[in-house]
TrEMBL record:
One of its GO terms (molecular function) is metallopeptidase activity. The lineage of its organism: Bacteria, Bacillati, Actinomycetota, Actinomycetes, Kitasatosporales. Residues 227-458 form the Metalloprotease TldD/E C-terminal domain. InterPro entries: Metalloprtase-TldD/E_C, TldD/PmbA_N, TldD/PmbA_sf. This is Peptidase. It comes from Streptomyces colonosanans. GO terms for biological process: proteolysis. It holds the Pfam family PmbA_TldD_3rd.
């Protein structure tokens, strides 16, 4: 093999050859991205980027156990490999035994495309979208509103090789579209977002129509005090709350009594009914339109991930089934500690089991309540109850007798997603959605709108 090759699979093989550790995992992430940005109904920038990140995980056996060292670097070529591998080995030798140490995964068939070139995106992904966006600009301009936003598409080809023989690969497309519409005097603002794999299923004209309707609602302004209100949460807000719940559902933390999923007196709440609605919260690497890696890719160890699990096959998992808590996220190590199944985290999240009613249908069935657009600046207040706080943004609307009658002020909220699932009185039709708060980290979700009879708007916010 040439010392100067830069093909990702050859970089992985060369790094494994250079390793002197007892075990080695090499992860090559080949990134490509394309983006468009616009302001005031006109494109401002566009661009395409390429990049590589190489992660080397070295494991060293000792009398007290196995230690691990992890080093990641960007823009790595073959000439940089030896120093990177030696740095990972030095980190392992300088570390104490890894608590999550397990034998490296074996027995997974090699990916048939492991030696193929990485997949790449380009500006061509916007070939149909960009002209339609231009038409939306013209419509917005004629309607007296201004559109701001961005479209981003990324394709990451991940190559995983290990000293135990694994040779795996996954190509992950990921696209996000966010659009803000503003009135010319900037007193009214509305937001809409979409998640997509290829920009073939997003319609700028439909988003502009949705935003125009919301700006129209905001022409009448109503001030409301803090309090508990019947509230309709759109899919994007439900996604933001339940993603945080998923991130907080490590089995070990629950078993040790540190989370909302801990059972008083010991153990976990698995088997407990969390919702009176027949809701199922699940992840599936093969979910149509939300496909994600079918094996573990772990660049670091943490509460719900272990570098020793790299390459472990993933399968569809119900976190909540028919309203009952079924599983918590666990690595091989934490599963052994808790006696629970090995259920690693998966890169998508779906909530279903509601009715076939749309958000518009649920608005029509509301006597008096609030309709949110999205949530923002979500932070944890109390891990024992998973109490979260955050802000509403870009439109909170008053619904009276089945119709939106105006925009109200923004609020700060205090709610636990686990508690919300227990109090929700209605769930509508699930649809693909973009979580606004967590869109930089987690985008593959499908959620229904939820009706909560007594959502806690704890104080009035002056945010837009």
């Amino acid at each position: 093999m040439s010392a100067h090759t830069n093909k990702p699979h050859e970089i992985v093989e060369r790094a494994l050859e250079l390793s002197r550790a007892d075990g080695c995992v090499v992860i090559a992430d080949e990134h490509s991205s394309a983006n468009l940005r616009w302001a005031g109904n006109a494109l401002t920038t566009n661009g395409v980027t390429r990049g590589r990140t190489l992660t080397v995980i070295a494991t060293v056996d000792g009398k007290e156990g196995t230690a691990s060292g992890v080093v990641s670097r960007s823009a790595v070529t073959a000439d940089d490999l030896e120093s990177l591998v030696r740095a990972a080995e030095a980190a392992a030798r300088g570390a104490g035994p890894a608590e999550d140490a397990q034998p490296l995964v074996t027995g997974v068939p090699q990916a048939p495309d492991f030696t193929d070139a990485p997949a790449e995106t380009s500006s061509a992904v916007f070939a149909d979208f960009a002209p339609a966006l231009g038409e939306a600009f013209a419509r917005a301009r004629a309607g007296g509103r201004e559109l701001y936003g961005f479209a981003h598409h990324e394709l990451v080809s991940t190559y995983v090789g290990t000293s135990a023989g694994l040779r795996l690969r996954h190509d992950q497309p990921n696209g996000t579209l966010e659009v803000n519409a503003k009135s010319p005097d900037r007193t009214r603002s509305a937001w809409a977002g979409r998640s997509t794999r290829d920009f073939k299923d997003v319609d700028p004209a439909a988003l502009d129509t949705e935003l125009a309707r919301r700006l129209g609602w905001a022409e009448r302004r109503i001030e409301l005090p803090a309090g508990r209100y019947e509230t309709l949460l759109p899919p994007t807000a439900v996604a933001d709350l339940l993603i945080y719940q998923l991130w907080s559902s490590a089995a070990r933390d629950a078993a040790e009594g540190r989370t909302v999923f801990s059972r008083p007196g010991g153990g976990t709440r698995i088997g407990e009914k969390l919702s009176r609605l027949p809701l199922t919260l699940r992840s599936d690497p093969h979910e149509p339109g939300l496909e994600t890696s079918p094996f573990v890719i772990a660049h670091a160890s943490g509460d719900d991930a272990s570098v020793f699990d790299n390459g472990l096959p993933l399968q569809a998992t119900d976190w909540i089934g028919d309203g009952e808590l079924k599983h918590l996220t666990s690595t091989r190590h934490s599963a052994a500690l808790t006696g629970l199944p090995v259920t690693p985290s998966i890169g998508n999240l779906i909530l279903d089991g509601g009715s076939d009613r749309s958000l518009e249908d649920m608005v029509a069935g509301t006597e008096r309540g609030l309709l949110l657009t999205c949530l923002w600046y979500i932070r944890e207040v109390d891990p024992a109850t998973l109490l979260l706080t955050g802000l509403t943004r870009d439109g909170v609307y008053l619904v009276e007798n089945g119709e939106v009658t105006g925009e109200v002020n923004n609020f700060r909220f205090n709610e636990s997603p686990v508690d919300l699932l227990g109090r929700a009185s209605e769930a509508g039709r699930s649809e693909k959605t973009l979580p606004r708060e967590w869109s930089d980290w987690f985008t593959r979700t499908a959620m229904p709108p939820l009706r909560v009879p007594d959502f806690n708007m704890s104080s009035v916010s002056q945010g837009v």
